[in-house]
């Protein structure tokens, strides 16, 4: 070894990143990348930051001491890159760098880091390498489990925990006489420890209660480590440097660069919350709060994490009430940001537009809170696209430099849904939040984003047993992390409300009190100290009674719709299946005096057509639609209408469905004030009533409804209570209607329907079991336990459970001799050309003819996402069809 090389610490002969052949430095030394990432983590864990204070308070460690320990460990995240096997992959030919030794790089460097640490940490401790307290008397055996838990978030910085299995150190780390990989790593650890001076709280590490708390917090720590690694790898702010120097000389440079990248990406300084000052501060003019909003303004907040459940009718201002509570929580130090979780992409889009710049009212004028939309098709939302490309807010006079920084922040956060939850204010689907409780790669980033947020979830009543179970896991973890949550619902069974509060109390390690109130509307407030139930008054304007009329045959429903058309009214028919909707639409369109006033709206359209039809539905039936435009309009639709659109109809026909869904559908009947109209009537197409129905009572005439709502007893109980009451009276009879169906005595079920109820109960239990199996054990901590690896790629899991897997299909068409996408002339043509179908339906579609294989491959090269979807060319399918007006048709007759 030359004299010059002998004076350079051996660890400076290892690269962390490399781009051979580029101008300037072609590699970034491993020591410098390690310090870059540590510097980002150092700035993010400043003692005054809420995240640091929260972690320190829960672990019983001073903020500065905790910061030094975690940042020291963060600097070791890429310890595995000291392996000569990894260095060989970089293909560097620089003099003095670690020479290749022919070792195969067959294991990721994060796993090699665990291997090296497990083999060496105890020795390094004895040798004083780790800056261990001299008077420490805790044995290595007692520290084994705590140390594994402590290190797991750092070596798992690539999105999932790692373990070594049966790996052998000598297979990856070399001592060739000139350079010893393990010794180089030891020297780096020693110099890094001497610089940062980590504080090892040994008494806390071996304390079982403290260790249990760290395990629950380790998911947030893992997210912080991953975020630090991502930002610390940003080459615009951390340019490559291959010059050796003392760590102490490089550290100030790394800190300065870290400060710059945090400012550019929106993490430099959290926005400053301000106190709630009334609705007049949000909206121009005089605004009178609704009773629910008044209660949100006045109820006393509790100390620590708290849960609110807001139950009220449509139009009661639940969203604004949630915003009031959120601003009060932020101002009281219970969070730094918000995440609005909605049930669908459409409702997320609507909330994103509705929120507008309201979120700016929650923070000081000097703050620039980021607002990001998070769901799978957000790039199709034009408002979001504009917001990402422009600075927020557009109406403030920031300097050019500030505008540029704001734009860059928006773009960085909007780069992926994983990052989107890190924004100060996020709006998206509930799925994006639930993914934090499942073994999706980088789920810890999602949990980090939620850790200090007020989580607002809308329409919790719509969650099935699978989603409810995942939600319970998420709520318990959110409470453990110190967050608060607000749940919104129009109709919620008592048992579901009790389960939600129980999950929250479990996260707080508190006893769940039995809920006693049966009032409606109701605000439930749950903290560690107590659970309060506040009955709320109702505005007269939202009190309503919707009469019920019964139809027994489809031809009756057809005649009722046409009668409404003749009376110049607009009418909606909500069907339970797409095939039933297509058939009804075909019959109505043939008999409508102006067929152009008929619309079909369901989920089996290509996205480009679904967006067009959705816009048209809003134009014709939305809040601003005119009397002339509404005259004689007909929509035949499915559940998509009740889930997402702020529309109203003069008349409504609905297939029979469980009571909560009928209440939701009725909420879109004469929803807005439009002058004189006949009293609202919900006309329900249902089987002939029978006190003693047979097992085929529903399927005999309503096969589609039976397929969707397999528990016939729910349909029978719904029909029974509505026949008894004769109307849906809200809010006065909301509890009676809901509990009469969902809290029924078993003896109330006719014997012939028992089998359907037993089967559905079994499916519900299976759904709970599957959710429990799929969900991460968030109390066990961010590490692999035993032989089971929940991150196995062959496992199938998701945020929603259906009886049948769905498949994404891309629609194709011919343009001359060329094969093109259905929405070929649109931006994002690959996404807009897709629709989602059941797997059994996809199997019926004609395969793409072989002579199109080359053109299909070319489309996949142009649009990489097409490699994961099923191609379909309807023109070449003799049995099934697609039309921009009808969607995908599986009926026996081609509707065209």
What does this structure look like?
It contains 34 helices and 23 strands. With 896 residues, the protein is of the alpha/beta class. It has four domains: 3-265, Hypothetical protein af1432; 291-336 and 452-539, Rossmann fold (3-Layer(aba) Sandwich); 544-730 and 744-756, P-loop containing nucleotide triphosphate hydrolases (Rossmann fold); 806-889, no CATH class. Strands 5-6-4-7-8-3-9-10 form an eight-stranded mixed β-sheet, sandwiched between helices. Strand 1 (15-18) and strand 2 form a beta hairpin. Helix 6 runs antiparallel to helix 7 (140-155) and helix 7 (140-155) packs parallel to helix 10 (208-232). It is globular and about 95 Å long. It starts with a helix and ends in a 7-residue tail after the last strand. The model is unreliable at 1-5, 391-405 and 892-896 (pLDDT under 50). It comes from Vreelandella janggokensis. This is CRISPR-associated helicase Cas3. It holds the Pfam family DEAD. Keywords: Antiviral defense, ATP-binding, Helicase, Hydrolase, Metal-binding, Nuclease, Nucleotide-binding. Residues 23-231 form the HD Cas3-type domain.
